[in-house]
Amino acid sequence: MPTDPDAPLRITAFDWVPDFARGYVRDLRPRWACEEIGLPYSTRLISAIDRPADHYARQPWGQVPVIDDDGLCMFESGAILLHLGEKDERLLPRDREGRARVTSWLFAAYNSVEPLFFEIGNVEIFAAGKEWAKLRRPSLLEEAGQRLDRLETALGTRDWLAGEFSIADIAMVTVLRDATGADLLEQRPRLAAYVERGTSRPAFQAALAAQLADFRPDPVAA
Asked: Could you please report the per-residue DSSP string of the chain?
C-alpha cells in the first residue's frame, strides 16, 4: 500500500540517515503496523542534521517517529503502536487476556531487550576501538545472551509472542533486527527463525521499501 499524501494519519520521519541506519530508523514500526491493516498514511520528512524547531515541540528530543492522526499528536513508537492497535484487532486483541499478553510483550521488547542492544550498538559502532568499550563488550554480550536465552525459551514453538501476530511482534522483531555482532541470533535458531518470519511478511517488506524510498542520497542534497 503506497503512502497517501491526503491521509489523515501522518508519520514524521527523517529524509536522510547514514547508510548503516537505513532500514532501521524507528518510523519503520508505525509504517509496518499501517501496512498490516491497510491503513493509509502520509509522511512528513525532516532533516536529521538540522531538525526544525517545531519538531522539538512535538518530540522533546527531536527523535522520530511522531504521528499526527487527524489532529492527535503522539511520539514514542510503543505508544504509537498501541494507538494503531486500537484501530484493528489484527494488531491488538480485544479480549482482556489477549490484550494483556500483547501489551506485556510490547513493553518487554522496549524495556527488557532493546536497552541492551542500544548499548551493544554503542560498543560495536559508536565507541568501537575505545578501551572502555573493549572492556565492556564481553560482559555485555554475556548479559544479552542470557536475556535472549530467556526470550527464546518463552517463545517456545509458537510463531508469535502472544498467539496471533500483533504489535508485540512488530516491536520485538524490529528490536532483534538491531542485534549487531557476536552472532547473538545465529546462536539461537528459534529467535533467528522468528525474526525471519517477521521480516518476510509482505507488510514489513512494504514498510521497509517505503522508508528506504524516502531517504535522499546525502544531507547536502536535502
From this structure: ----TT-SEEEEEES---GGGTTTSTTHHHHHHHHHHT---EEEEE-SSS--HHHHHHSTT--S-EEEETTEEEESHHHHHHHHHTT-TTTS-SSHHHHHHHHHHHHHIIIIIHHHHHHHHIIIIITTT-HHHHHHHHHHHHHHHHHHHHHHHHHTT-SSTTSS--HHHHHHHHHHTT--STTTTTT-HHHHHHHHHHHHSHHHHHHHHHHHHH--S-TTT-
> What's the rounded Cα separation, in Å, for the pair 61 and 158?
37
The CATH fold assigned to 9-90+204-214 is Glutaredoxin (3.40.30)
Q: pLDDT tens digits, residue range 70-103?
A: 999 999 999 999 999 999 999 999 999 999 999 9
pLDDT grade for 3, boundaries at 50, 70 and 90: confident
Among the listed ranges 9-18, 89-98, 129-138, 153-162, which one has the minimum average pLDDT value? Answer: 129-138
State how far the Cα of 11 lies from the Cα of 211, in Å rounded to an integer: 11
209: left (phi over 0), alpha (psi -120 to 50) or beta: alpha
Question: CATH 3.40.30.10 region(s) of the chain?
Answer: 9-90+204-214
CATH 1.20.1050.10: which residues of the chain? 96-201
Task: Please tell me the CATH code under which domain 96-201 is placed.
Answer: 1.20.1050.10
Compute the distance between CA of residue 42 and CA of residue 2 in angstroms, rounded to an integer.
9
